[in-house]
Backbone:
């Protein structure tokens, strides 16, 4: 049975959005911030968990495993790539590179919003 | 980009939560739902505080992502509100769970039932926390200080939420599964991990112990509900859950012991044989490769924990077998006294309840008697019969009224 744990999906959406907000603020302030820290705590395992919707609540039965789609795998790669960029922000010379990251990650958000029906 | 659209949405959601009408016949249930309504409003306050924080940030390129996120947060919250307040399960299912809490809990426990995709348990605070875990509050102090205050308030007045699988709302014979979920709360609250002493350290021990506890408290009716459910969803084992075979085997272990003791009065003893045969059939159909190993582990857990489980139940109530024996003795005494009996003093056996059912008259029977009346093979075939549902629902109502009346009378006498 595949069920959506919409709360955990919201959490992942929140932390990815914090990554975007953090980069936006970084562009203005040129220093790290809490939002980026939140985004850096995000792991590929958590994203996979949200996407296959294994509930973190106590359930009568466990949930079945589900494979990720190509676009879901692409989202995970994009998150990891953006995290790498954030870890090396001081070495990034061009604002354009950060803006591109914002756009690419922002576009990938659709993938995870799809996990919540109607979004 | 303006955040006004988000705040408009918050106002709308607040209105929706406030407008939820609570046409509830039972005071304990009404109190629970009123409290949950307040907690949902607090939950919305947390999101408002986040929105206020984001609004004060200098965002030049990402406001639209934040607006989308906050809008979806609000929508998910509305969904959670609907799961509780539009749950289709009859109000009387609250009576069944409340009875368990009253019998085994430390005090009256506020809880709510919610319609979901699985039987599971959580709480309002845990649900909210799940959405914002590892997310720091926006930096501006103004407006975001309320996040901690609201979170602490929700935590201090938290309410367990017990989910049932949406398709089972009218399947009264599946309702005992709610007791498993309710018991998770007691397991944590009462620190019942002491039951695990001397048990092998298997990762699914808590689930196994809870199944053991409920089957020893509620009897074959729980074993039957569990087997019927697991037959439909025979999932592979995970870290937190034993395999299908293990859980069926726990219930079978219980039934074997009960049959061996041969203390159950008829017709429960016959019904138990029917349940045993059903479980054995389900078990043999679903055997897994590692059955022997699982069986051995379950047997070790069962033998190590059984007496402790019975002792813990006995601290507050009676295990099912003893309860039935005592009930039978009380009934005999009542009949020996003869004459007119007030309804609140009436003691009913499974046989009595069956007779009332056949006559179409709901009765104020203890839920353990009531549900174990319908475990025979014949009853299992009646699962879709609306008369069965009506009888159980109306009987639970009468049971609640009887207890309320007895409590009121006792209070006046004091």
Residues:
């Amino acid at each position: 049975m595949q069920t959506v744990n919409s709360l955990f999906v919201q959490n992942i959406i929140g932390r990815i959005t914090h990554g975007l907000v953090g980069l936006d603020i970084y562009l203005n302030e040129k220093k790290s911030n809490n939002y980026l820290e939140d985004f850096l705590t995000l792991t590929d395992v958590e994203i996979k968990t949200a996407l296959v919707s294994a509930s973190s609540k106590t359930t009568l039965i466990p949930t079945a495993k589900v494979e990720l789609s190509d676009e879901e795998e692409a989202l995970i790669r994009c998150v990891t790539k953006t995290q790498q960029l954030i870890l090396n922000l001081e070495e990034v010379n061009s604002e354009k590179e950060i803006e591109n990251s914002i756009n690419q990650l922002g576009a990938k958000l659709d993938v995870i919003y799809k996990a919540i029906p109607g979004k | 980009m303006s955040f006004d659209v988000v705040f408009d949405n918050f106002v709308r959601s607040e209105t929706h939560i406030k407008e939820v009408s609570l046409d509830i016949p039972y005071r304990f249930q009404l109190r629970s739902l009123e409290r949950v309504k307040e907690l949902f409003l607090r939950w919305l306050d947390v999101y408002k505080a986040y929105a206020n924080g984001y609004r004060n940030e200098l965002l030049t390129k990402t406001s639209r992502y934040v607006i989308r996120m906050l809008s979806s947060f609000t929508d998910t919250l509305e969904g959670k509100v609907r799961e509780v307040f539009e749950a289709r399960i009859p109000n009387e299912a609250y009576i069944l769970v409340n009875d368990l809490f009253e019998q085994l809990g430390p005090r009256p426990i506020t809880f709510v039932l919610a319609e979901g995709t699985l039987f599971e348990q959580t709480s309002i605070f845990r649900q909210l926390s799940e959405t914002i875990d590892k997310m720091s509050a926006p930096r501006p102090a103004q407006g975001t200080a309320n996040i901690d205050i609201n979170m602490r308030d929700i935590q201090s007045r938290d309410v367990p939420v017990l989910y049932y699988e949406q398709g089972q709302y009218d399947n009264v014979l599946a309702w005992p599964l709610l007791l498993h979920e309710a018991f998770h709360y007691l397991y944590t609250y009462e620190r019942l991990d002491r039951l695990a002493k001397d048990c092998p350290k298997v990762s699914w021990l808590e689930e196994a112990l809870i199944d053991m506890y409920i089957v020893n408290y509620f009897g074959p009716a729980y074993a039957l509900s569990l087997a019927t459910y697991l037959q439909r969803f025979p999932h592979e084992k995970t870290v937190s859950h034993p395999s299908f075979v293990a859980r069926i085997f726990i219930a079978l272990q219980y039934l074997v012991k009960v049959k061996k003791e041969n203390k159950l009065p008829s017709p429960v003893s016959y019904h138990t044989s029917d349940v045993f045969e059903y479980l054995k059939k389900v078990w043999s159909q679903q055997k897994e490769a590692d059955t022997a190993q699982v069986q051995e582990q379950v047997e070790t857990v069962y033998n190590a924990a059984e007496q402790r489980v019975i002792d813990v139940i006995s601290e507050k109530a009676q295990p099912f077998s003893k309860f039935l024996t005592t009930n039978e003795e009380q009934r005999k005494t009542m009949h020996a006294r003869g004459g007119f009996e007030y309804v609140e003093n009436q003691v009913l056996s499974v046989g009595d309840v069956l007779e009332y059912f056949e006559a179409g008259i709901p009765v104020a029977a203890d839920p353990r008697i009531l549900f174990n009346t319908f475990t025979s093979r014949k009853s299992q075939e009646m699962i879709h019969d609306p008369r069965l549902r009506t009888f159980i629902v109306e009987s639970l109502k009468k049971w609640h009224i009887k207890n309320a009346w007895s409590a009121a009378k006792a209070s006046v006498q004091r």
Summary: Chain A touches chain B through 45 residues (CB under 8 Å).
